[in-house]
Amino acid sequence: MDRVVKLEQIEHFDFITDVAVCGYGGAGASAALEARRAGSEVMIFERFSSGGGSTALSACEMYLGGNGGTKLQQELGFEDSTENFYNYLMACFGKYADEARVRKFVDGAAEHFDWAEGLGVPYKRGFYPGRDVVAMTGDSLQYTGNERAYPFNQQAQAIPRGHLPADADHDGGKVLMGHLMRNVVESGADIKYDARVLSLIQDENKRICGLLVKIDNKVQAVYARQGVILAMGGFIMNESMTKQHIPQLESICTRHGNPGDRGDGILMGIAAGGNAIHMGQAFVGIAHYPPSDLTYGIFVNEQGQRFINEDIYLARLGDYAARQTNQKAYMFIDNKYYSRPDYHETTEIIAVGETVEELERESGLPEGSLQHTVAYYNQHAEQGVDPLFHKSADWLAPLVTPPFALVDYSLATLKPTCFTLGGLDTLPTGEVLTAEREVIEGLYAAGRTASGIPRTGEGYASGMSVADATFFGRQAGISASQTSRNEPPV
Ligand SMILES: Cc1cc2nc3c(=O)[nH]c(=O)nc-3n(C[C@H](O)[C@H](O)[C@H](O)COP(=O)(O)OP(=O)(O)OC[C@H]3O[C@@H](n4cnc5c(N)ncnc54)[C@H](O)[C@@H]3O)c2cc1C
User: Fold this and answer.
1) What percent of the chain has pLDDT over 70?
2) pLDDT in tens, 140-171
């Protein structure tokens, strides 16, 4: 079926509403709630028999700060100025960053924490100071990204910004979505489950005025007086799209998402004249910690050379590893710091040796390469410096305790978790833009259907997706409900 159909082709509307929300995950639920609160009639169409999407699968870390700090940051003694937060995000995404979007986010992110807490999501006033992907202590604040690592520590003051629902470990998404969806139901939004959105409806002025949805095996037409919001997640589950846009990851990635991540929203947006951007960018997760002591190890490539400071966030490692020759990466580590990484328990040790020379021989790395790398690293680590990659002194120690090991972190072996970051170009209001950056009337997008705050794996931090999806979902709901109402043709 065509992803866009003409209004004149529609003979009868089965439903009429103000704002039609496609997808009932984090972005869609946030959009629906705000549109209802602003006084619009809202219908939500969700493909599956329950809502939640990938947001419910997530740990629901939310990356928030600015304005002096969220209530949680402040109560735990952390001050985070808006400029500091802005500088950090701009450092993360560099030339990919959308300044207007980043500005909107840093201005509103502290209030967004109040919004989440106001929904009923519990946050514990506890700070976890360690290095872990998700704090398993029940605490609600932690560092989640590259804040303390070079070069980011040169460009912004390191502040913990990962906000986690209390005592939820990896299940924070269920907590958030439980409260969010309860609020949506109480707001009076009309939710249709087992309702797969197929196409958008476009009027003669190219304004989007509704959609076609399959419910009970019947295609039904919906007229939306104010607008349609696309919040249908990313495209990591769509093999033809991943082959096209992230071929370098296609055969090696473990697809991280829900089965609905098929790019339906992006494809409908494109069909309506929208522009999809940064489609080749993805999160590639190589969790080389916890345990945090593994950070003392060093990563080398096929040439036996280091390529990164190992105190970075796991998706930055994934991004850099994906760019090494044959996507090969190995951790060299000594007996003092060696252990299995918690999230990749099956990592293979490909060589061991009582000396680096012996290990190098067994590994097949070019003769002398690893010996040189390790000697150079150890010589400087002894002084507490890393002249090549500026790893923090906190994680620098000479690797001198035999036996030594080389552990395979190559992408093909590890099959890291991946999800997509490309999506529709939108204004911070959620309005979908053409390639000329003109607004497509009546069409909004948020969450992984749009290209949001996190635009590269290189700059990603845990918490950026859910914060972005819910924050900009809200903006899309507010914007749509501020649009004047158009009436359906009789
Ligand atoms: C295991 C896991 C852990 C993660 N942990 C974190 C974390 O802690 N912090 C973080 O920031 N990010 C995390 N992420 C990433 C993050 O969860 C997602 O990027 C984000 O939640 C996406 O939100 P969304 O609203 O765009 O999509 P979703 O929440 O996936 O919602 C999209 C909805 O649209 C529906 N849909 C799709 N197609 C159609 C259609 N044609 N018609 C109707 N409905 C449709 C889907 O069924 C789904 O319900 C994690 C991801 C995973 C998989």
Assistant:
1) 100
2) 999 999 999 999 999 999 999 999 999 999 99
pLDDT, residue 67, reads 98
In a domain, 303, yes or no: yes
By DSSP bridging, strand 15-22 and strand 218-230 are parallel
Q: Ligand 1 centre and the CA of 263: distance in Å?
A: 11
The verdict on residue 359 lying in a domain is yes
Segment 10-24 shows an average pLDDT of 98
For residue 119, the one-letter residue type is: L
State how many domains the chain has: 1
Tokens of 48: 């599956």
Look up the CATH number of the domain holding residue 352: 3.90.700.10
C-alpha to C-alpha distances, 318 to 261, 416, 479, nearest whole angstrom: 21, 8, 36
On whether residue 78 sits in a domain, the answer given is no
Nearest atom within ligand 1 for CA of residue 283: 15
Atom of ligand 1 nearest to the CA of 23: 34
Does residue 6 have a pLDDT over 90?
yes
The per-residue pLDDT of the chain, averaged, comes to: 97
Contact 133, 341 (CB under 8 A): no
The answer to whether the bond into 488 is cis (omega within 30° of 0) is: no
Given this model, what pLDDT does residue 346 score?
76
Ligand 1: residues within 6 Å at CB?
Answer: 22-28, 45-48, 51, 53-55, 57-61, 196-197, 231-233, 256-258, 260, 264, 419, 447-449, 462-466, 469
Residue 214 has which token pair? Answer: 């399959």
What is the residue with the minimal CA distance to atom 12 of ligand 1? Answer: 465
CA distance 119 to 458: 32
Cis? peptide before 291, omega within 30° of 0: yes
For residue 286, the CA-to-ligand 1 centroid distance in Å is 20
- 8 Å CB contact between 34 and 481: yes
Q: Per-residue pLDDT tens for 227-265?
A: 999 999 999 999 999 999 999 998 899 999 999 999 999
Ligand 1 probe mutation, 3, 44, 58, most atoms within 8 A of CB: 58
pLDDT of residue 2: 95
- Tens digits of residue pLDDT in 33-50: 999 999 999 999 999 999
Quote the domain boundaries for residue 401: 287-414
The ligand 1 atom at the shortest distance from the C-alpha of residue 234 is 26
222 CA from centroid of ligand 1 (Å): 24
pLDDT at 220 over 90: yes
If we measure between CA atoms, which residue out of 114, 131, 135 comes closest to residue 69?
114
Residue 402 lies in a domain: yes
Q: How far is the CA of 309 from the centre of ligand 1 (A)?
A: 30
The helix (run of H) or strand (run of E) holding residue 220 is strand 218-230
